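Hi there,

I know you've been waiting on this one. I reran it after we fixed the sequence typo, so this is the corrected version. Both the input and the resulting structure follow.
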Amino acid sequence: MEDIERKKYIAEIFLKKCTFIYQEMEGYVSYLSEIISNDKGVPDMAVELQKEIKIDEYINNIMPIILEAFSTKELQEFIEFYSSKTGSKIRDPKFLSRIGDESNKFVAKIERDIVDKIEEKRKP
């Protein structure tokens, strides 16, 4: 039987260091704060937002999913891999940006193709 507290601790390390989930949440909060900061009508709202949104609360909500999906050994293997030189490459911002750009282009093309096909069918 696994020690659940140890497994939770390892799962927290996994989420913060090895996945994009934590980084995406932090990035989203920063993005919202930046937008709000640029709005002259609500100067202190960005600071309030940072206090209001607690990423740790989100982590607590997804922790049961992680604990159910992976064993302690698997979480440790993820940490080892993502801590390695090879594993860290997949989290490289340049790589992620390029992948994101290509994903956006692909989705935009599909949307254009669908619109074109719909418009073509509507023609008399």
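Quick highlight: The helical segments are 4-18, 20-38, 45-52, 55-69, 72-83, 85-89, 93-122.

Best,
R. S.
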